[in-house]
Amino acid sequence: MNIAICDDDKLFCQQMKKNIDHFFIDKNNNYVSEIFLSGEELLTHLRKKKKSIQLYFLDIEMEGIDGISVAKKIREEDVDALIIFITCHEEKMPKAFDVFAFHYLMKPIDQKSVFNILNSAYNYLERKMTIFQFAIRKQIYTLPFSQIEYFESAGRKIRVHSKNNVIYEYYDVLDRVENQISSELFVRIHKSYLINLDYLHKIESKKVIMRSNASFPISRKYQKHFHHKFRKFHLRYEIVSFSSGDNHV
Length: 249
What we know:
The chain is of the alpha/beta class. The protein contains six helices and 15 strands. Strand 3, helix 3 (about 65-75) and strand 4 (about 80-85) form a beta-alpha-beta unit. Helix 1 crosses helix 4 (about 110-130) and helix 2 (about 40-50) runs parallel beside helix 3. It starts with a strand and ends in a 12-residue tail after the last helix.
């Protein structure tokens, strides 16, 4: 889990970071928490970095770009991240509904309140099983499942193709990725491809076409497995938006 703390009060940020570190002491998951002392600094970081952030703590009342404005910018690119606002004025919280805030903290904060909110956020993300983690040159990257279109095996490397046309490449094998995913969203269609069914646009004969227009063959080995998993997905999510054509499901 990647966590951003954004507040123009440095001492407050350090206190929040200590609380977060304490919360994760008995958790097995990797996490990174980073401090940003202005909305501008956070947005600059997001433009430069390719890794996504799952949880934001945003002060509403900051000099320069305020927390609500920062949250609106975040929502333009990421609808899945959890945003928790920090404020001294509870009457300002109705504005948080515009950016689908997960929760809020009132200053001055106490450890119990921080732990309660972190626990809710942690359990929410765990229940949704939306997080996929991998390492590139010893740096941990985390992507929500909803941002991954497909995995591609290329020699001894895995290429993670995201919805924003960003490709992450690291050393691993697709069998291990498939076991790690363990989700109804993803299905293996070929020795080299593992696709997200949410991004499946059309099935034509023995190939699939993704929303990005990428197309892949369904190998004989995986045909039965693919159609079985697709039917389960179809029934569960009531997909009705498939294009007409040679749909052999």
